[in-house]
């Protein structure tokens, strides 16, 4: 392909994105677009799968049958999200095995929030309310992103996430209207999850390396700082309804800006966890790698059985 | 209160509760996403069935009892599940074998229970048949895949079947409560399911190139509340919140 032809293709491509047309797997796309999408979609898929672990931690101990069923269903939804996101990612010409390999080797990232431990039942509430709440803010704009398979997967993901968020809030509500120990448990969970949830929306705009290109491709519609502000503005009144205190002495309503001002985020902690040194990074990775490695003989058996069945079918036909 | 009926419901429900709890342990740790989702699905179905039974039992009990009191606040000796369902997830072959050996029985039981004179039990059975038909297909297919897969998977599956076989006979024990309920047309006489159970299981194991264990030594006790050493740990986990924070709503 000549340089002029390539330039022409690129122009048509950029025009299609500007016109809000969807890019489909068989369409021509710049290599960088493909790579960026593999990175982001797989990172998202990995986050769903690793995200099953901190909540899975409470399935056997859920305090009522109703909560147990809801939690199981929620964690199962996350597996489902992982499944459609991996499938969307595979349309870009990469296999699920390669994607797993990237996760297991540490080459691919997943959301750092899942490297924090879930130490009480109230964490199931806080994770739903705050973590899923922040995830929705990140994800809703992606329902309109330019890559068709990703956008369609996200429509489904967002519907379920919003259900999870309400479920988390309802757990918190029940705790806050319960016995003093329960309310204390809820406050403690908020104290531990608040700052990591703010960090979930990514580094400040000045530090974010991918924002500009991603905005152009509609992989991102708002900057990290805008999303964070939106999350805080939305969540503070919810904490008021619960009667809980946000653990930030600098948090206050700013009449002029029409937003909440908030305190300094501990970015050292953020980078420490991103770089693999959070409280549970090792446990999460060991759990994922362990499940995959222990499952090798199962997957091999399934392949071998399918092969045998095929051979038997052919020999029968002959 | 109708004590026989109440006890009989626990006998039915505790199997679902404990089997569901065991599968729930695996959520997020399956050999791949598809089996992870499927095992969670089975667990969810079993907890759904448990709730149906316990809500009914709570109604019979009165005294403002709830499904959660029955699920979480009994002592070990009061749980009536069979020993089979409390066996641990030693590996995926054990999980599948345990569930398969239970599912075949469970479906046979429900196919009879749907004709119960008790409308609630009949309704629960009818709903559950649809779910359990899928369970037995899923686990049966995996027994075949693992049995007739690779040498390693064959060995693991055979080990699991050999290890769990001793718990199969208890499924067909008839307790005093179950006997009375069967006589009243409410419950199922499970002893009549035994031959067809072993026929079905034998046929599938043979198809899976597995050897049907020859041992005639069996374990029992679960139905009368005498469990294996695993049960205490299951309950310690399951009851943790209810025991640590008594009388609270969640």
UniProtKB/TrEMBL annotation, chain A:
Record flagged with keyword Signal: no
Keywords, comma-separated and alphabetical: Oxidoreductase
The keyword Lipid metabolism is assigned to this record: no
Molecular functions per Gene Ontology: phenylacetyl-CoA 1,2-epoxidase activity
InterPro entries hit by this protein: Aromatic_CoA_ox/epox, Ferritin-like, Ferritin-like_SF, PaaA, PaaA_PaaC
Family matches, as SUPFAM superfamilies: Ferritin-like
Bilayer-crossing regions: none
PANTHER family linked: 1,2-PHENYLACETYL-COA EPOXIDASE, SUBUNIT A (PTHR30458:SF2), PHENYLACETIC ACID DEGRADATION PROTEIN PAA (PTHR30458)
Protein name as it appears in the record: 1,2-phenylacetyl-CoA epoxidase subunit A
Automatic annotation (TrEMBL), chain B:
A Pfam entry, by short name: PaaA_PaaC
InterPro entries to which the protein is assigned, alphabetical: Aromatic_CoA_ox/epox (IPR052703), Ferritin-like (IPR012347), Ferritin-like_SF (IPR009078), PaaA_PaaC (IPR007814), PaaC (IPR011882)
Signal peptide residue numbers: none
Superkingdom of this protein's organism: Bacteria
Name of protein: Phenylacetate-CoA oxygenase subunit PaaC
Origin species: Kordia aestuariivivens
């Amino acid at each position: 392909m000549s340089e002029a032809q390539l330039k022409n293709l690129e122009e048509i491509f950029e025009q299609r994105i500007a016109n809000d047309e969807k890019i489909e797997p068989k369409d021509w796309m710049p290599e960088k677009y493909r790579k960026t999408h593999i990175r982001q979609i797989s990172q998202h898929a990995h986050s769903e799968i690793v995200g099953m672990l901190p909540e899975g931690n409470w399935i056997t101990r859920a305090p009522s049958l109703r909560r147990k069923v809801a939690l199981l269903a929620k964690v199962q939804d996350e597996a489902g999200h992982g499944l459609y996101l991996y499938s969307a990612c595979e349309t870009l010409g990469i296999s699920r095995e390669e994607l797993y390999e990237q996760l297991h080797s540490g080459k691919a990232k997943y959301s750092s929030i899942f490297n924090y431990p879930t130490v009480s039942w109230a964490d199931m509430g806080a994770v739903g309310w705050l973590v899923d709440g922040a995830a929705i803010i990140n994800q809703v704009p992606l329902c309109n992103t330019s890559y068709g398979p990703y956008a369609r997967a996200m429509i489904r993901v967002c519907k379920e996430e919003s259900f999870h968020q309400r479920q988390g809030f309802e757990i918190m509500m029940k705790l806050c209207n319960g016995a003093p120990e329960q309310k204390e448990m809820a406050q403690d969970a908020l104290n531990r999850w608040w700052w990591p949830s703010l960090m979930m929306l990514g580094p400040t705009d000045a530090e974010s390396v991918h924002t500009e290109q991603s905005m152009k491709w509609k992989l991102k519609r708002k900057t990290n700082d805008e999303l964070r502000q939106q999350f805080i503005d939305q969540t503070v009144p919810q904490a008021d309804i619960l009667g809980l205190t946000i653990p930030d002495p600098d948090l206050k309503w700013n009449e002029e800006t029409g937003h909440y001002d908030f305190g300094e985020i501990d970015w050292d902690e953020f980078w420490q966890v991103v770089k693999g040194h959070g409280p549970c990074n090792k446990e999460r990775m060991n759990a994922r790698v362990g499940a995959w490695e222990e499952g090798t003989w199962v997957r091999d058996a399934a392949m071998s059985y399918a092969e045998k069945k095929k051979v038997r079918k052919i020999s029968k036909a002959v | 209160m109708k004590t026989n009926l109440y006890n009989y419901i626990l006998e039915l429900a505790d199997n679902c509760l404990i089997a569901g709890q065991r599968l729930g342990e695996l959520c997020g740790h399956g050999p791949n996403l598809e089996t992870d989702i499927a095992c969670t699905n089975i667990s969810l179905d079993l907890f759904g069935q448990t709730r149906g039974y316990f809500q009914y039992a709570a109604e019979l009990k009165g005294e403002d009892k709830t499904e959660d009191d029955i699920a979480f606040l009994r002592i070990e000796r009061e749980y009536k599940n069979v020993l089979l369902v409390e066996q641990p997830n030693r590996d995926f072959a054990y999980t599948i074998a345990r569930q398969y050996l239970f599912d075949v029985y469970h479906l046979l039981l429900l196919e009879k229970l749907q004709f119960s004179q008790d409308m609630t039990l009949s309704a629960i059975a009818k709903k559950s048949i649809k779910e359990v038909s899928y369970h037995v297909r899923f686990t049966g297919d995996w027994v075949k895949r693992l049995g007739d897969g690779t040498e390693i998977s064959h060995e693991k599956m055979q080990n699991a079947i050999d290890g769990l076989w001793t718990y199969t006979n208890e499924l067909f024990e008839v307790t005093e409560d179950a006997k009375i309920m069967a006589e009243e047309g409410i419950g199922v006489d499970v002893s009549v399911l035994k031959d067809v159970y072993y026929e079905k299981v034998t046929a599938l194991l043979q198809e899976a190139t597995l050897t049907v264990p020859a041992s005639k030594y069996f374990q029992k006790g679960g139905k009368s509340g005498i469990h294996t050493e695993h049960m205490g740990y299951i309950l310690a986990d399951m009851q943790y919140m209810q025991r640590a924070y008594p009388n609270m709503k969640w």
